Write the structure tokens for this entry.
Amino acid sequence: MSELANKQCEACRPGAPLVTQAQIDELMPQLPEWQIIEVDGINHLTRIYKCKNFLDAMAFAEQIAQKAEQENHHPSLLVEWGKLTVTWWTHKINGLHESDFIMAARTDALYSDR
Amino acid sequence: MSELANKQCEACRPGAPLVTQAQIDELMPQLPEWQIIEVDGINHLTRIYKCKNFLDAMAFAEQIAQKAEQENHHPSLLVEWGKLTVTWWTHKINGLHESDFIMAARTDALYSDR
């Protein structure tokens, strides 16, 4: 696992700090396959993973769901035939927290280990 | 299960007929919670289901995935905390086939039986 994936996630809480642009500039090179997209004015971190078929995408989603549950921090998971789109953001602060980047790195690590 | 849910799904194949407006007018009243939305010029049939939490949404997605695999006809499933968005359409004909409405009715039946 990458250094980022090994960092501790902070608990989500209202008032937790959004990542700064300086942090984003430091974090994004560690997540080369991820993109920041704005949805309804809220930044989200998203990546599409290729999978073998529908059930394989579903199985990967299930793995991510278990990790998310452990951290009590949940992404959106879009399961389609042959691909899974994973999107992280922090509802409670309407944007991106460092934990979202940590979870993205852990999702990459799960994918690499499949 | 409803009458619609009990109909046979036809195999997806290129050249299969899109539903006509007359069919849509007949089918939609049997699927009151579903909406037809256009994405990139392609009609899709979509519904949001309320779930208890993230893992409950995941578990319902898993049930639908098993049914989809049996029919070899796959939706997109958007898993989020407390809700699951299910979207049916037929890739091979770039739109809606009667089978999509049948699968929507079966998805409703799965939800009712939970």
About this structure: Chain B has a mean pLDDT of 94. Strands of chain B lie at 35-39, 42-50, 76-80, 83-88.
